[in-house]
């Protein structure tokens, strides 16, 4: 049996224990029985709570990170600047207020994911993202079979 919610929280609290402090023996014995995948998931959650989340939350949107806006993308494309797909869709480092770095990307994937989630939460979808999303949803609808109103894409759109 896996850990319950309280035990996962306790594990994450205990991950920050100082040397010499002990982990509750009952919890430790249950943790020894977990398979490797569950332990990796708990460790990843612990890393997020103790390290990545605090690091990402102190960053300021559109000052130290953000999404490339449509105008910047159009300007870069007009100057024959290569923009990788990841730079178009994920958060990128900023050099200052509304000044995205020309070519840098975040090196740690967890940080990049966290900052991307925050960037979309703060800024919302760009018009180009919304347009692409609706186009893909429409194409998926056309590929699906069955009554139009019961197709998965139609149900997703109506939600």
Automatic annotation (TrEMBL):
Signal peptide: none annotated. It comes from the Eukaryota. InterPro entries: DUF3645, OTU_Deubiquitinase. It catalyses: Thiol-dependent hydrolysis of ester, thioester, amide, peptide and isopeptide bonds formed by the C-terminal Gly of ubiquitin (a 76-residue protein attached to proteins as an intracellular targeting signal). Pfam families: DUF3645. GO terms for molecular function: cysteine-type deubiquitinase activity; K63-linked polyubiquitin modification-dependent protein binding. Its EC number is 3.4.19.12. The keyword Signal does not apply. One of its GO terms (biological process) is protein deubiquitination involved in ubiquitin-dependent protein catabolic process. Residues 85-116 form the DUF3645 domain. Keywords: Hydrolase, Protease, Thiol protease, Ubl conjugation pathway. One of its GO terms (cellular component) is cytoplasm. It is an enzyme of class 3 (hydrolase). This is ubiquitinyl hydrolase 1.
């Amino acid at each position: 049996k896996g850990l319950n919610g309280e035990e996962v929280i306790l594990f994450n609290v205990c991950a920050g224990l100082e040397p010499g402090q002990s982990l509750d023996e009952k919890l430790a014995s249950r943790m020894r029985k977990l398979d490797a995948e569950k332990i990796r998931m708990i460790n990843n959650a612990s890393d997020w709570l103790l390290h990545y989340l605090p690091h990402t939350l102190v960053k300021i949107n559109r000052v130290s990170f953000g999404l490339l806006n449509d105008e910047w993308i159009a300007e870069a494309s007009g100057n024959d600047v290569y923009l990788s797909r990841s730079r178009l869709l994920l958060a990128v480092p900023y050099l200052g207020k509304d000044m995205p770095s020309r070519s840098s990307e975040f090196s740690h994937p967890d940080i990049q994911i966290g900052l991307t989630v925050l960037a979309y939460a703060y800024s919302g979808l760009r018009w180009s993202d919304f347009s692409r999303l609706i186009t893909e949803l429409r194409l998926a609808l056309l590929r699906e079979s069955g009554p139009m109103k019961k197709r998965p894409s139609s149900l997703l759109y109506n939600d």
